[in-house]
């Protein structure tokens, strides 16, 4: 046992040392549909024979970090329903677009299949799991992300991390293990608060929880065939292979089909206490969606499914979910590596009972070729851990040479607002504003000195008399209005309401320096609303000195900016 633990430590240490010692290439570009020129989101990009890869974002863009030792390997881009793209990584030019050609569907081949024939396809795919999936444990590297919004869909927090994953074989009923390599978090509602709680545990176990093949979820378990209806929805291709797309949903009336003989309980059954072959009424179809099965090998390669309303009535359904939810949807993918299919990635999107949306996703970015070893006990993350409690400070340059996945469109926009807020805090910090004021005071002092010298020339006074001049005549002040020291500050705050429906509108605040260069620009959307109380702030600064309000500006403007970021409907006016 000690020897095995020692070897495991050496393995992960060697991986980490190798990861930081070798040189990397960073490939960037976009994946587009060849015909429509539209982005292809969430396509897989990688080097299949090396087991490394990442995905495109919602806009088709990608960033792939490739060890320089693999630069002559084939860069492969694949997506369901498209022909696979491949070219040497060394010949790829950064910023280039990769165009994927849609594959031709062949639906007419199977439209006559009845329910039993389709069930036989699923049954055969389950039977082939030992042949199609790894029969040895494996070590993987993964990127994990989770986020939560409030009931108005504004993001509350973001947590991300690189995980080391230990997967047991697909014939082993034990759940695998997870360890944290490094992670970061940010409270998007209050960035200064780093001690917040998410309230969600086990999210980091996603690589195990959402592996529907290993867990033998209901819709591929023949014991539950009587409760489901199945149909051929389409036929497509993936990596040049024909793929069945099988739809499934709740059967109105349970049928007598299916094999009810006793067999080993799946991981999902054991963890939830579900009884195998129970037809007393507790067994039912709790999910609906689509399964993707490769025709030649009968391998499960993808599933898209959601929990039905009836299924959500069950408050404890680990590994899929625990607690009260209004919705839970899943997308799970598998990739082939060295002749075997491996869990590749999963995305779970849930809607809480209060309307907030929780999402957690995992992407396997590297599969290590050696037979897997367990993660040392002290390095394992427990199932009951909250991931945000294990991560550290948010840092832009955090991931070094690790591959990560792009953010969703909504999360990306929220992070943009967060960066604007940091920019505002920096621009209007006490130190920065003091430096700006000092610079402007110096400019004003130099201008006063110039006016004094001009006064001396006009009135023929001596240098000694000039030194005693501490003012400029009113007549000269009026020339360019740079000397008037009187300033006036006025601030008012009022409340108002409106009952007329307002559409969503953008709101922008720009702040410029004396020369007209932009220091800060903040943009946010005012959401659509039917009724609201409107606090309206009016800050007026009057002075003949250019930007003389700088010293008064920080506190008032910071309050307005914070209101803009947090609420989205503050009205601000500067005169």
Structure in words:
There is one protein chain. With 575 residues, this protein is α+β, with helices and mostly antiparallel strands. Among the domains are: 25-100, Immunoglobulin-like (Sandwich), CATH 2.60.40; 134-210 and 335-407, no CATH class; 425-567, no CATH class. It has twelve helices and 23 strands. The protein has helices at 2-21, 115-127, 129-132, 206-209, 212-215, 267-272, 309-312, 409-427, 430-459, 463-467, 474-480, 553-567, and strands at 24-33, 44-47, 52-55, 61-67, 74-78, 85-88, 96-100, 138-149, 155-167, 177-187, 228-238, 241-250, 287-294, 300-307, 316-317, 321-322, 325-337, 340-352, 357-371, 487-498, 505-512, 518-526, 532-543. The strands form six sheets. A ten-stranded antiparallel sheet has the order 10-9-8-19-18-17-14-13-12-11. A four-stranded antiparallel sheet has the order 3-2-5-6, with no helix packed on it. Helix 8 runs antiparallel to helix 12 (553-567). The longest helix has 30 residues, at 430-459. It is elongated and about 110 Å long. Residues 1-9, 275-281, 476-489, 539-556 and 564-575 have low confidence and may be disordered.
Compact description:
The chain has 575 residues and is α+β, with helices and mostly antiparallel strands.
